[in-house]
């Protein structure tokens, strides 16, 4: 992989863009308003004849991580783009995006399929004799499921901040994958509940690097309008794993029980862990790092890939991440109220989808044999892949986020109401067919909404993604105890709680939308908005930045 030296802007003179903030000019003119600005002075909006307070300089510099405010780079495109027509640039971008898609997406989807399989195959393993062989009761099994998410929670934020600082996702993510593949395979060697607890904890600790790391990774290659669909493609890995892990497990349970004197559940962990390690080694040679440091793009393509992101959010992730410490990004994320609203939104969506961690067990309440149960687990995930793709494509095409989250979650609420009301096979399976697409169709758009809402600086975005994803997965710790076999077959508590959290997530989406509408109105007036394209009044208007709602 190629490398690009980061520039030390601290020793260079400040560059003042001609258009972004002409502080010494007598006036700034836009299509709708004329303003006169001076450092730390009020801004007069001629159309409304109201004074708008200019941002405090210290606040702007602090929020911009002191480096962005010091540099104030002028957003100028690469020289080769200047003479291109809009059609020519669009054609060049289309070719570039296709090239990036083909290089990144197949591998990260495959990696996430295995990430999800290795995390959730314990549920299928119970149908292959795990609980019996390890002499575990239902509560011990629930603990084995939930303890993974303790390790998952602890590692997410440090991992993402480390990834942002090193700038080597093509090495870091596959290396983590090798380790978790080995740990997953080692589950086959467990002989009691204590050993299973230990293995599951460390599995979660290492797996924590992948999903938030991938979300950050995608945000370093794609613009905000492109993230929704790419996030849905990534998350389709989880949905595909839900469909095909059941089919794989069905084959192993049916044909490999006691093969070479090993129970089927042990073969399940050995085979799937080995596949994970093999794919991880392949990923070392396929995945790129960041646009400016990859060698499989031409020089013009590298410049265009980096410029698209800089034009979209006002920052060059490769350069800016070099000037940001681990904890500066975390501090900025924790100080932004939008982080906490997003946290509630994602926490409640993940909580409402906790049924997927125990899906084969819930499907077993339809009173089918083990193989039929595993086969019946597949169709809801297949439907979810289709609805997720369609919803995310439309969300990216329109730039809208709110309704693409709320409508699917409303379907999930209806599905849970049906499921808790009956144990009849037809309505019960209909509920299961709807709840998985309902929850996860909205979830992938909500994931993209994080990067849309907290786009800069890069370290803040990385910290927010990790923090929100970590907290959202804590719901899986308590959820495992709601699916104890003593609550079968209706699982009234679990279905009711999941229905309630889906409703709360809709309320959180309403709150976030209201906040972003208000911030966009401030941007329309040319006012300073913390977290917009930069910390200079009027720049967001000039460069067209708006929060996606």
Describe this structure in words.
- Residues 104-517 form the Major facilitator superfamily (MFS) profile domain.
- Residues 26-42 have a biased composition (Low complexity).
- One of its GO terms (molecular function) is transmembrane transporter activity.
- InterPro entries: MFS, MFS_dom, MFS_trans_sf.
- There is one protein chain.
- The chain is mostly helical and 549 residues long.
- It has helices spanning 57-63, 67-71, 79-82, 86-126, 130-133, 138-166, 169-186, 193-207, 210-219, 224-255, 264-286, 299-313, 317-321, 326-335, 337-352, 359-363, 370-376, 378-398, 402-421, 425-453, 458-472, 475-482, 492-524, 539-543; strands at residues 28-29, 34-35, 43-45, 50-52.
- It folds into two domains: 17-82, no CATH class; 86-524, MFS general substrate transporter like domains (Growth Hormone, Chain: A, Up-down Bundle).
- The strands form two sheets. Strands 1-2 form a two-stranded antiparallel ribbon.
- The protein contains 24 helices and four strands.
Short characterization:
The protein has 549 residues and is an all-alpha fold.
Keywords:
two-stranded antiparallel sheet; 24 helices; Growth Hormone, Chain: A; disordered N terminus; 549 residues; mainly alpha
């Amino acid at each position: 992989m190629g490398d690009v030296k980061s520039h030390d802007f601290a020793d260079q003179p400040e560059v003042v863009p001609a258009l972004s903030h002409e502080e010494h000019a007598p006036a700034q003119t836009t299509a709708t308003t004329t303003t006169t600005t001076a450092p730390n002075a009020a801004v007069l909006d001629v159309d409304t004849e109201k004074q708008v307070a200019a941002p405090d300089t210290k606040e702007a510099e602090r929020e911009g991580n002191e480096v962005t405010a010091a540099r104030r780079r002028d957003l100028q495109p690469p020289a080769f783009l200047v003479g291109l027509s809009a059609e020519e640039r669009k054609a060049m971008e289309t070719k570039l995006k296709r090239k990036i898609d083909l290089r990144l997406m197949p591998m990260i989807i495959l990696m996430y399929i295995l990430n999800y399989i290795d995390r959730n195959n314990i549920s299928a393993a119970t149908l292959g004799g795990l609980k019996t062989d390890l002499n575990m009761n239902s509560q011990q099994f629930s603990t084995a499921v939930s303890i993974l998410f303790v390790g998952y929670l602890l590692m997410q934020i440090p991992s993402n901040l480390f990834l942002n600082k090193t700038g080597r996702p093509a090495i870091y993510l596959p290396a983590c994958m090798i380790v978790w593949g080995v740990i997953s395979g080692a589950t086959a060697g467990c002989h009691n509940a204590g050993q299973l607890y230990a293995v599951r904890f460390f599995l979660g600790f290492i797996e924590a690097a992948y999903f938030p790391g991938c979300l950050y990774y995608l945000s370093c290659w794609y613009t905000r309008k492109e993230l929704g669909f790419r996030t849905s493609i990534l998350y389709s890995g989880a949905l595909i794993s839900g469909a095909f892990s059941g089919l794989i497990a069905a084959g192993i349970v049916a044909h490999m029980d006691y093969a070479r004197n090993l129970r089927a559940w042990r073969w399940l962990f050995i085979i799937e862990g080995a596949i994970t390690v093999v794919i991880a080694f392949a990923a070392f040679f396929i995945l790129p790092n960041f646009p400016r440091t990859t060698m499989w793009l031409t020089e013009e393509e590298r410049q265009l890939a980096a410029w698209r992101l800089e034009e979209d959010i006002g920052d060059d992730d490769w350069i800016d991440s070099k000037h940001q410490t681990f904890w500066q990004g975390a501090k900025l994320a924790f100080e932004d109220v939008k982080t906490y609203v997003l946290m509630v939104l994602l926490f409640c969506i993940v909580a409402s989808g906790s049924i997927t961690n125990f899906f084969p067990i819930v499907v077993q309440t339809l009173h089918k044999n083990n193989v039929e149960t595993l086969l019946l687990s597949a169709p809801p995930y297949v439907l979810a892949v289709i609805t997720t793709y369609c919803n995310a494509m439309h969300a990216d095409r329109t730039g809208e986020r709110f309704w693409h989250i709320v409508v699917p979650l409303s379907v999930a609420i209806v599905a849970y109401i049906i499921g808790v009301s009956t144990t009849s096979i037809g309505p019960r399976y209909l509920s299961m067919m709807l709840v998985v697409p309902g929850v996860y169709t909205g979830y992938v758009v909500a994931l993209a909404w994080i990067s849309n809402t907290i786009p800069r600086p890069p370290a803040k975005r990385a910290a927010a993604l990790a923090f929100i994803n970590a907290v959202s997965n804590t719901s899986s710790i308590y959820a495992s105890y709601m699916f104890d076999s003593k609550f079968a077959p209706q699982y009234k508590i679990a279905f009711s709680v999941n229905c309630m959290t889906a409703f709360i997530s809709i309320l959180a989406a309403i709150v976030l939308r209201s906040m972003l509408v208000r911030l966009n109105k401030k941007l329309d007036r040319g006012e300073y908005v913390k977290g917009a394209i930069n910390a200079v009044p009027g720049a967001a208007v000039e460069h067209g930045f708006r929060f996606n709602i």
